[in-house]
Amino acid sequence: MTFKYQHGFCIIRCQPFHIGHDRLIKKMMEQCAWGTVLIGSAQESGTEKNPLPYFVRKKMVQNVWRKSEAYDRLWIAGVKDSITIPWNKLVLDTLQKEQADKPMPEVMYVGNESEYSLFADDVPHVEVCSRTTQDFPFLSGNMVRDMIMLHDERWKSLVHPENIDLIIKSFYEDAPL
User: Which of 39, 38, 34 minimizes the C-alpha distance to 8?
Assistant: First the structure.
């Protein structure tokens, strides 16, 4: 199989993992021999903006991708926020440290081009993949999270069925909110 790129990456928070995030990963895995999903704000959980812990967010991605033939080419890791280290340096250092045996990514996958601006000097290519479609023009993690918290059942159409029970358990049974 021939790929456009050797190694690509994306950064998503997965609060929760929704179909727009999956669309981004799908494009990356179609174009790259190796793909890395970095889950941002990995140290955060139990807050309004970041209610889910890292291990739940990682599991949501795994639940969807583990059945894919591309799963053995996909690496999922957390990246923690820092107030002292610039975000692009933190991300690139995480990639280098955690994947010393892999080439540094030459492409970043983003939902909109402005997400790439901090990385333009270090990552030569960007692929923009809108997380929204005609069916879901207003899809965002904030919207899905709000729907879950308000018990608006429409959120279930915006996440993969494999994750519905996990989200219910995490938001309604275990959540310290």
Answer: 34
Residue 24 parent element (H or E): helix 19-31
Query: Worst-scoring range by mean pLDDT, 1-5, 94-98, 136-140?
Result: 136-140
Q: Which of 105, 108, 111, 143 is nearest to 23 (CA)?
A: 111
Q: With a threshold of 0.90, does the pTM exceed it?
A: yes
Angle ∠(123,91,70) on CA atoms, nearest 5: 75
Query: Which of 104, 108, 87, 86 has its CA nearest to residue 25?
Result: 108
Average pLDDT across the chain, whole number: 92
Could you give the domains of the chain? 5-173 (3.40.50.620)
Of 174, 158, 161, the C-alpha closest to 20 is 158
Q: Which helix (H) or strand (E) is 74 found in, with range? A: strand 74-79
